[in-house]
Amino acid sequence: VRKSKAADEKRRSLARQARDDYRRLSLQGIHRGKQADISKGATARDRRPLQYPPLPPKPKLLPPAVANGRVIRKEGIQRTISSSTEESIIKWFKEEQFPLRAGYQKTTDTIAPWFHGILTSKKAEEILNKTVPGSFLVQVSEKIKGYVLSYRSVEGCKHFLIDASSDSYSFLGVDQLQHSTLADLVDYHK
Any one cellular component term from GO for this entry (predicted)? Predict the structure, then answer.
């Protein structure tokens, strides 16, 4: 989660710097244009186009982790909040995610200490409020076929949705890096 926050801050900083550079270059161009018009009667040929900063690279798909020689995943399911009942989410977890060892530690056959099964956000907050800032847990979402990473910061608890509908796991809207297992996603952001 810290790496994700650092990456977000870096993107915001780059965007802020790009906006400032654009404004500065625009003002310099306007200022130069007025001076040139006054002193030499500048033409459109004399003005150079503004140069924009380069775009950040697109997120890359991380290679799948191989367990017992191969990773087998079912096709992702298009989902909506209204059609995902608690029963269908439990069925989805048992049939699709449990065979993939979602929630297990990477190297053993034990459930990861950060995985808490199906919890409400309120119950996750109750658990995290008894811990130190920086603590987190992952639970099966009660509303969608995916997961929620609940994180305790100094300001309070924050919840991040994890998309598990395709052949990978990734945060929705925040971090587009894709991971082959839930444990890989958690380890990457620890």
Answer: cytoplasm
| Residues making up the chain, counted from first to last | 190
Q: How many CB atoms lie within 10 A of CB 189?
A: 21
Residues 6+ apart with CB under 8 A from 32: none
Q: Is 134 left (phi over 0), alpha (psi -120 to 50) or beta?
A: left
Distance CA 36, CA 164 (A): 58
Residue 54 has pLDDT above 70, yes or no: yes
Q: Give the separation between CA 62 and CA 177, rounded to whole angstroms.
A: 7
User: What are the structural domain ranges in the chain?
Assistant: 12-46, 86-189
Q: Give the whole-angstrom CA distance, residue 104 versus residue 109.
A: 7
* Torsional class of 41: left (φ above 0), alpha (ψ -120 to 50), beta (otherwise): left
39 or 180: which leads in pLDDT: 180
List the CATH code of the domain at 86-189: 3.30.505.10
Instruction: Give pLDDT tens digits for 60-112.
Output: 666 666 556 666 555 554 544 445 677 888 888 888 888 888 888 888 888 88
